[in-house]
Amino acid sequence: xxxxxxxxxxxxxxxxxxxxxxxxxxxxxxxxxxxxxxxxxxxxxxxxxxxxxxxxxxxxxxxxxxxxxxxxxxxxxxxxxxxxxxxxxxxxxxxxxxxxxxxxxxxxxxxxxxxxxxxxxxxxxxxxxxxxxxxxxxxxxxxxxxxxxxxxxxxxxxxxxxxxxxxxxxxxxxxxxxxxxxxxxxxxxxxxxxxxxxxxxxxxxxxxxxxxxxxxxxxxxxxxxxxxxxxxxxxxxxxxxxxxxxxxxxxxxxxxxxxxxxxxxxxxxxxxxxxxxxxxxxxxxxxxxxxxxxxxxxxxxxxxxxxxxxxxxxxxxxxxxxxxxxxxxxxxxxxxxxxxxxxxxxxxxxxxxxxxxxxxxxxxxxxxxxxxxxxxxxxxxxxxxxxxxxxxxxxxxxxxxxxxxxxxxxxxxxxxxxxxxxxxxxxxxxxxxxxxxxxxxxxxxxxxxxxxxxxxxxxxxxxxxxxxxxxxxxxxxxxxxxxxxxxxxxxxxxxxxxxxxxxxxxxxxxxxxxxxxxxxxxxxxxxxxxxxxxxxxxxxxxxxxxxxxxxxxxxxxxxxxxxxxxxxxxxxxxxxxxxxxxxxxxxxxxxxxxxxxxxxxxxxxxxxxxxxxxxxxxxxxxxxxxxxxxxxxxxxxxxxxxxxxxxxxxxxxxxx
Length: 656
Known about the structure:
The protein is α/β, with parallel strands linked by helices. The radius of gyration is 24 Å and the shape is globular.
């Protein structure tokens, strides 16, 4: 039986205050009328723990749990004597360990699939980008003379397996890191050896009675995070490109209007590209398509959500319904005949919503079962056994939906698929590919700097609003924005991922966008594809003219509506790489403590990046722009921004 929505919630939470997404808002209104409670209303009912929000509690043993006073953090210690700095660093370490483990587990699954393809034991997938395969082998200094594609793939798989299993030395992709950045890492002893030993080691440190110095713990936090960004996530992105194709710009539709009342609608939500690739094959199977038509459907409509949807949108132009906070609301349309999920960011609340609207919710991955959901195991050797069964269930549901179908007719078009390789080509062409045009336009001041705006959406803030307002403010100030994950979908729903959106940019960025024919906001893919941002930053350093390390660049990052432990791991690997990274919503530390000061300033003094936090998008933009300007000044290019003739109205606006 469905939970009934509390009437008081309707009065407290006006829909305009919880989401900027019109389609999600319409379905939230319908859900409330139907008596169905979604995450927005559950968040309103669930008051966040103020002690936990500031990480002033410890439950590492059962002498506690111990609660310290965030208003007077040094007034007492835990039963064992643990200080506020020890407690905070342990808690953050466990968040980073979990986030890094999630990404590395995903990357290792992609590696296992790649090994099967390379050895010929898995035949439903293939090597679609042999050029990237060869280039990656050369980059990692694998001797490939005389090798076949299969032999190169096997050699690459053996090398990348070290990312996870190696217990000494440095992970393979460290070869990509700019020399000065790597020198700093080695000096600080934060170069990761292998994901497994780093995650195991940091969990051991957080056990009661182990590492009790916040500075030493922070080193382990950075190592574990770097094992994600330059390890498991990078492996997942690179091997995904090799097997499924390296993205290049493609137009795709986003928002609830991509659902079709007269079609069988199947949504794939999660993070594993192999499930989606097989689902794409199933929906295009003539036999299954004919069965759907025999049941009265005009066809089978495959739609993505969340990160695997972002990958498929970037590679194949598959339509995308929405980001994390819309995954329940989309079922309220009544049009979703099946939602197949795999891992990460899958809300357990989907079960009750799916049950009410008679949607098939199907888990497919052994790492993510949900009580009350149907489970159909996805197996890479016979993937169609799973995906064909899901399509069959969806067709049967279409024939007997039994619920009202109400699809908000809202569709936004956008350009997606800006891989590192395509950006390299876009800026310089086939024969002069490189980052010289980007660097030159940063040096001459047309482009002020680059910002990576990424991450989740969170029901504690108005869905999409912080992302959208932040990015508008950045591009207005000539900051080029690159995006991944749910943030990318937020901006796509606002219609900002098209070249025509350049009119919102400042005069310098607008000029560059119009010359190249690109949007002022570049969508790169899913959350593991944040590694494309690392590669872009590395390419900027290696191109020259903007310093010798990533920490020298006029760049900044933000996760305006973060919510997951993966986001903390991502943030820390950007900070450790040298990027100023600002989180919205809040941050799990207590201000005016030694650990907080280390993260928000001390790391930068060591040659790395630093953290920042504010829930306000305009303050966030100001903080990021100030950092970019500081880096421009340090590089001696702060005087090179072009003069712009302004009328009196513009001058008055600036004065205000």
